[in-house]
Amino acid sequence: xxxxxxxxxxxxxxxxxxxxxxxxxxxxxxxxxxxxxxxxxxxxxxxxxxxxxxxxxxxxxxxxxxxxxxxxxxxxxxxxxxxxxxxxxxxxxxxxxxxxxxxxxxxxxxxxxxxxxxxxxxxxxxxxxxxxxxxxxxxxxxxxxxxxxxxxxxxxxxxxxxxxxxxxxxxxxxxxxxxxxxxxxxxxxxxxxxxxxxxxxxxxxxxxxxxxxxxxxxxxxxxxxxxxxxxxxxxxxxxxxxxxxxxxxxxxxxxxxxxxxxxxxxxxxxxxxxxxxxxxxxxxxxxxxxxxxxxxxxxxxxxxxxxxxxxxxxxxxxxxxxxxxxxxxxxxxxxxxxxxxxxxxxxxxxxxxxxxxxx
Length: 359
What we know:
Elements: E1 2-6, E2 15-19, E3 29-38, H1 41-48, H2 59-62, E4 91-99, E5 111-114, E6 117-119, E7 130-132, E8 144-148, E9 152-154, H3 161-164, H4 168-179, E10 188-191, H5 197-208, E11 212-217, H6 222-228, E12 232-235, H7 241-249, E13 253-258, H8 262-271, E14 272-280, H9 293-298, E15 302-305, H10 313-323, E16 330-335, H11 339-348, E17 354-358
Parallel strand pairs: 10-11, 10-13, 11-12, 13-14, 14-15, 16-17
Antiparallel strand pairs: 1-2, 3-4, 3-8, 3-17, 4-5, 5-9, 6-7
Helix pairs in contact: 4-5, 7-8
């Protein structure tokens, strides 16, 4: 089959379109003919080893060419090493074409969407017991892929494969990010990176919970974000973000959901009310932030990270997809052989929603 192999840490030249053996299912596994596979920041982070603590730059600074100084022993989301070559791609939609032993053959032909979190039994927050599809195993940037049967979730939808492939990573991440702050109806939430996959998903998920949403993004995308449910859109380049947030909210906000990181971190913290909640699932604009601890202490704030999604998260997302509660945002589609170009466009951050490749 055709696939794109990540052959090592570095720039886009490490992505090689080539022939590899078609996967065969082991016990409890299924083989899926890939209809579409979405891109996400994890693909870039892993390729460039941005997760390495030796890197203190924004993702975009080395996204195309790689970073000069990395530690390849801590180059994955779980601070471990990655084995090359590997097929990346977490956001897979397709049909089951083969099953392994101990797997129901009646599933052949089933349309499925992959839950990318490969959680083990027991402590699912132990990184040694939790893998990610396309990182700790081969993923979906290929014509076929395999996964354990329990992670191939049936999906009934009129959406295209490319539209469905916008959901897995972005919406499970956003659902976890939102849940970490336990939003209540009527609360005001500010969301950074609101036009990206996770940010646009978080807008929809917060609105479903009855929250008022303030989005931080480029004003060129304001109309689309309002259509998703944002009440107000603040220019991401504003000089005084804290004041802009407080003005939009007519006071401090209850919750800040952040995927941008360093440049906006303290403005978000300062804009929170007493007892406010901040949660982050990424820091694409920079991981190193200054922090006034007095804000945390004397405002009784709650700060959380959001990475490993609890069991059942993708099942809930599929349910919302099937009822039409969530809207797919398909920015652009590329052929599999053009994955490197797709990542170039992805890194420019001019799109709204998700970019997808199709075999």
